[in-house]
Structure formats: structure tokens, C-alpha cells
Amino acid sequence: MREVTLGLLGLGNIGGGVWDLVREFGDELATRTGLRLRVKKALVLDKKIHGGKEVPDEVLTTDKDDILEDPEIQIVCEFLGGEQPAASMMLRALENGKSVVSANKMALSLHFDELREMAKKTGAGLYFEASVGGAIPVLTALQSPLIANHVEQVMGIVNGTTNYILTRMAAEGAEYEDVLKDAQRLGLAEPDPTADVEGMDAAYKISIMGSLAFHSRIYMEDVYREGITNVSAEDIAFGREMGYVLKLLAIGKDNGDSIEARVHPAFLPVDHPLARVDGSLNAIYLYGHSFKDMMLEGRGAGDAPTASAIVGDIVLAARNAVHPVAWLREDPLPVADDWQSKYFIRMKAKDAPGVLAEVTGLLAGEGISVSAMMQKGAAPGGKATLIVITHIAPEKAVRRVVEALNPEICQVENVIRVEG
Length: 420
Ligand code: HSE
What we know:
The protein is of the alpha/beta class. It contains 13 helices and 17 strands. The strands form 2 sheets. Strands 7, 8, 9, 10, 11, 12, 13, 14, 15, 16 and 17 form an 11-stranded mixed β-sheet that branches. The protein has a 6-stranded parallel β-sheet with strand order 3-2-1-4-5-6, with helices on both faces. Helix 3 links the parallel strand 4 and strand 5. The structure holds L-homoserine.
């Protein structure tokens, strides 16, 4: 039996989940893998307050060097969250030849180049399966069983909080603010929900997952990002009437000479595999030239599902004689600032002759063809809701049309991309 000595940076929810899993499942894991995992040290802010786990006093430390500088510790698991000091500590661990396991999408996305370079230099391993999709093994899949593919598309529901909110808005016809408040009350959304609802969390994740899928580094600042705060119950209801379900999607596409990386609300046809992924579940839909299409679905957050991925990475790190380093192009492909999609445009328009002609005229002027249209609440001289769904069109052309519409006769209330 080989002993694997671990140091945990942090013992909060995820760290505590890993502590529990190693303790409860350690014997079984030893039987299956021949590895005995031992947590030698866990870094905490205060030895008396550490999430209520029964951790022996000699394991707890408030000094990071007890982990980072201890030659006996082989694998450092980072659970601090946030950019710093997490990134610096991971870098130091790698510099000291220790493999690092982390679920920290922010630190990994922002510091991937230097962490990867250091791992290459010292031969230590950098493992981060839990950073995207929680328990779903998508990053390992991209780097190993799916490696014999030109991956053309990754499209995911990678944020459970927003999927929970959108699912309830759809089921109850409720508005965003009301569902958010309730989700916060139930502990299903953070007291400060910004990172989730503004799409930052999903953007970090597509920057990591897209980089591995397309072998080309995608930087966080290049990811186009819109959150769910402007979505209304009306959008969801009209979309549903026209055969669509609204999701917050993280989309990556390889167009050959450029890459798309974007996070925004999007309508999917009701029969798309991602359309039925509800509540706080995550799912990633992939297309590769040899496996064709595939969807991976599961729990993207929570102590136990995240610990499942972390401990899986620990086992990989302990087993691998040579740690795999994802190959990335030295000259990253540019991230596109324009792309093609279909568009759902919801407008409040004067119910008068010529209004439709103005809308369709502007669309025609940009070469955009209409695929479906619906008018509701019409009353001569009054205001009606007008929904237009376009055929595939360039993003920038649609933005020009929206800019050009005369608000005196037609106000655009929302524009939502239609994917799938
Ligand atoms: N905040 C994330 C979510 C979980 O709501 O899915 C951690 O990545």
C-alpha cells in the first residue's frame, strides 16, 4: 500500500467535503487503488473555527508554509477560492514539485499560463477537473478519452444558481427579482449573487473548458458576457409559446480561424438535450468530428459532488508517473467579437400602419431574414407586443438594426440569442 500525503489549503465547504470523503471512503479507495490517502495538514484561519469537522488538532495549521514547504506533502489541494492568495500558493506548491488539485475556476482561469508553465518546469501535476461542472468529468474527458477529435463546439449549462432561477421563473411565470430573493432565502443563491447572475462564474468556466477543447488559450477578458438580470417572465413565456426554453449558456465554438467564447441567456428548441436540464443541474453538450454529439450531465456544485471530482484528481495525481499537460497552441486563435446566431427580438410597438414595414425594412437592409413573428395585445392606435425571430444572422448586424429602430414607434425590450 502506498501512502499519499496531502495538504489542504482551506477546510470550508469543499475542503470539509474532501476531508469527509477521504475519511469515510478511504478504506474502500485504498482497496481499489492501492493508495492510502492521508491528510497531514489543513490550513485554517483559526484553529477553533473550521466548519465543525472533527479534525485532530495536530492536522490543523494557520501557517501556509507547514503545507507549501513540507517536503513530505506530495499533493496540495487548494480550497481557498478567489484569485489571491490562492494562485500564489498554487504556484509555490508547483515550484516545490508538489502536484496541485483545485476547483478554483477564478484563480485557474486568470493564472493558467503561469501555473501551467511552472507545472511543466518542475514536472508537478496541475489537476482541476472540479473547476468546471463539479462532479461531471468533462475536462478529463476532453484531455483523454475524447482527445482523438477536432472538438467544434462545447455548450454548457455550467452555473447551477442561474439554472435554478430560470427553471423556477419558467415553471411559475415569476419575475427574476422575486425568484432570486426566494433562492437567497433558501440558501440556493449567494447573499451577493453577482458572480453567478452576471455570468462571471460561467465565463471563467468557458475560458477553462474552451481552452482545453480547442487547444487554444481563451482569456477571461475575451469572453463575451451577459447575465440573467434582464430576463423577464414575459420573454420566457413568449419563447415557450414559440417552442423555446431559456437557459444561461456558456458557448465555445471553433470556427477554424477564430474561436467564439460567450456567456449569455439563450433560447434552445424544447427538444434540444440541454433544454430539459432543470434546477441546479449542470450539463455540457459537445460536438467532435469523430464522437459526433454527446451530453454530460450531473451536479455542478455542492460539497460531496465537488469532493468526488477532487478526490478523483488526487488519485490521478498519485497514479501518474508523468503528469499530463494539456497541449495549447503557442499562437492562440483570436476570440471573435462577432458571430452568427438566430435572434429573438421582443418589442413594444405602436399598432399602426407601417410599423411592421419599418422593422422588416431595417432587417432586410442588413440582409436579415425573419423566421417567425408574433403580435400580442394589439389594439388600433395602442401598443402591441411584437416578437420577431430571425434566421441565422451576424450579431453586429442585429445590433445595428436595434440601434436604428425609432423608439417613437417601436421600443426594443429585449434581444435574446436562439441557439441549438
Ligand atoms: N456558483 C456555482 C453555481 C457553483 O451556482 O453553479 C460553483 O462553481
